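User: Sequence in, structure out. Go.
Assistant: Echoing your sequence, followed by the structure tokens.
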Amino acid sequence: MFNPKGNNILDEQLAVSGLEMSIEPTLIAAGVSAATSIVGGIFGSSQASKQNAAARSARSKQKKSAKKAAKATNKYNKEAFEIDKQNYYNNREFQREIQLDSWRYNQQIQDIQYNQVVQQYAKSVENTENQLAFNSLAAIDAYAAEQAALNEIFVEDAFSRQGQGIEQLQQQGAAALGQAGNTRTKALQSVVAAAGRNTAIQDASLASSVEQSQRNMRQIATQKYGADMAARAEMMIRPQAIPDIPMPKEAPERIFIAPMKVTPTYIPPAVQQSTVAPLIEGFGSAASSIASGVDWAEVFKP
């Protein structure tokens, strides 16, 4: 039945059982404080869970970003390394071609210079041979002229001797006819003696002319020898082939060291907050509030 006094069934039962409880305002306040502590603990646990999830998400994004940056860096380093190697080999080949071009050019210049020297030597030999031939011709002409002069001397001497012989005969005949006795004999002896003197003078003159001609011949030979020596002295020395210019040598190849692979930046684990601690703290605070705010001896007093 409806109780106009407001007593409910629980009050009646408590009254019947003898356990009438007196609910004081402190109990209500303790319950409210306990409920607040529990709700705060639940909210703190929820916030800790959300913060832990956000920290894990942030760490995951940082790890992905670090991996992406490391991958990009490694890709760039690899491409830069390959380009550096290619540039090195391109420049090495270019320098090699420059060295070979310079070597070929210098070799051609050397060959041209050697050919010019050979041509100059050939011309020098030709000039020397021409000079020697000229010296020989000049000596032959000189020999011929000297021989002709000597022959003229011999001819003149022969004519002179012939004339002197005729003159001697005439003188002897005149001496034989014009004189007699000892006078004739003396005249003949005088003619013979004069003829002998003339013959001796002619012999000496002819011998002198022959000796002079021989000296002239020797002088001609000496002059030809000197002219030949001078011509040979002016002739160039036979050129010797110049050794080829050594080919350029290649420098040792550069040793390349591949770039070290970059690893992703270390991302420390996300700091995780305890989700249980707020609950424990809330329930602990609730229990403490109820325990300190209610006099349980009075509540359950018989």
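User: And one key feature?
Assistant: The chain has one domain: 9-244+275-295.
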